[in-house]
């Protein structure tokens, strides 16, 4: 064994005598360890159990914590685990309370394996997307996050979850799972100094976001919150100051992007990290705390420490209806909840402008916190959970075997099998195995990846599903999958996708994501202003491999099923092939609704004019004319404000839109081609489109001849579309048209209006009409006769 680390002898003596050792990856600076290790240890000490904390950051000298822990080389993580094992092995009778299932858990498992220590798993963040030992995983598949968590939770004497979503995640692995929120300490967080003078942050209505800006998810949330603030009417907004107190891997980039996005906002203030001990005083000078969480697995699983700190210091809370805020507080009484940007902005405006409402909301939340959400309130329950867990438990789970290589070969994939897609297939199998009637399972669960998993020889042992159940599920998948049910009703040729690069004009196809050039555009298209990819500057070993995995998981496996992203990426792909993304082109984008695509175009175009022909265009124009923030610029995308101009209303009201020279391309987005005004818009735009210019259109194709939605008829899924343009206009269809439709594409069907219909899909059923996305490109070769565009638009709608 290596030589003993040089630790404080008094601390080691306390470790040796402890009944419970709280083991944390992070240090006191970060809320998960501060509350769920240090404060929880304080609680059980007060209740008769000797407790001590072992922090990999505070005690073992880990150089990173929180989001930065990903930067640690795996060799360093292993060294730290060996050092921790030496400490833990000194006390074989202590219960190990392991905060998170991160890289530090290895030492706890080693101690439990060698000395028989009992373990409680405390899980407070959804971190299944992380890979603490990504280079070792191919050799030790049990280190894959999903498998590791399942087996760790199953072997633990009990689990403690910080939120209801995590409780639901852990309970299937371990029925002895309990909910304990990440509550606040009244000794630090209380309203006692709220009446003191505000010397640090001023007397405005102070709004606060605070925390670790570790990557994409918090960046997107913060941008959403600041955009909502920008949308507050200026007469109300100038009463307030929006404070962001942050640190972390993406902190500097966040500041840069927000300053670029809102250069005129002089009441947006950034503050560097403030130590936890000072934060009670900070909150006494704040009036509103924002929790602008997007609805994703991470945020929905959060037990936001800052929410409980706001409650105890009488800071009114404005939040999105995501996660524990919905369960712990009452909308309209102790919190204001806003869903979507404009709704959230309205609630924020209410709290800024109505002093009485703000105070009432804060008071109601304070009373709720005193009753249930303080450290004292959870102390007895937490101590009882730990005492009960001190009885040994020898349960064990089956060993797992990796299946990515098997699935990749079975599916004929050219790219690696993303771990996220494997996890989705496993989730589908789990749902099917639990269904009382396989005929009632959502048909979108029956897919080629699930069939590959069912064919894998290790499925029964690894997934814990009997062979006979697997056989029944496979038979149901083949019988009920969408592709099999839908093919008989198609009125287009069900051909295979042609070899070679994707055509310019085509139906949506999941196979496009297997084309290297097209996939490269999908990566580039990730221009969300909260996206923060890993780079060499992060000083992470093998960062290239980590970056590639990230792209596969967050782009390939998710968006390859997304209608909206397929449309936008394919349009970018086509524009690139036509030489229009070299930074010199001027473009017009016509849309009926807000669309991030025209914002993203500013990255590659010299100028983008946007024409809003939606039903509320007049109201938008009136708002913009009054000097208020234009919501058409608030889609969360990186863009260049100086390269875009948005025009609301009919085209005749904007004769100056084309600027000094004609447009090089006109783009119709959001099914604008089927709008009643399409003929008028196209005639107006054609006059301002350069000779040889490109018309690009995204819309729908009706696959079965139904009439419940506007779209191209099945007879136009080929030469019919080219003939229509030739007959009525001076434009020719470019690159032919690919109407092939695969099983993988048909499997991604949703029914319009049904639960989950807004989730990623490529094919939809509206009423009795089956339809899919389509993009096509035309080039201007001559003039269009008067009335030609009106006749074309009518023919496309028929």
Observed structural traits:
globular; alpha/beta; eleven-stranded mixed beta sheet; 31 helices; 798 residues
Describe the structure.
This protein is α/β, with parallel strands linked by helices. Helices cover 40% and strands 15% of the residues. The chain has 31 helices and 23 strands. Strands 13, 14, 15, 16, 17, 18, 19, 20, 21, 22 and 23 form an eleven-stranded mixed β-sheet that branches. It has a six-stranded parallel β-sheet with strand order 2-1-3-4-5-6, sandwiched between helices. It is globular. The protein starts with 8 loop residues before the first helix and ends with a helix.
Strand content: 15-25%
Based on secondary structure, the structural category is alpha/beta
Low-confidence stretches: 1-5, 392-401
Q: Rg, please?
A: 29 Å
| Overall pLDDT level | 87
Number of strands: 23
Q: Note the overall shape.
A: globular
Report how far the terminal alpha carbons are from each other: 80 Å
Biggest beta sheet attributes: 11 strands, mixed
Helix content: 25-40%
Number of helices: 31
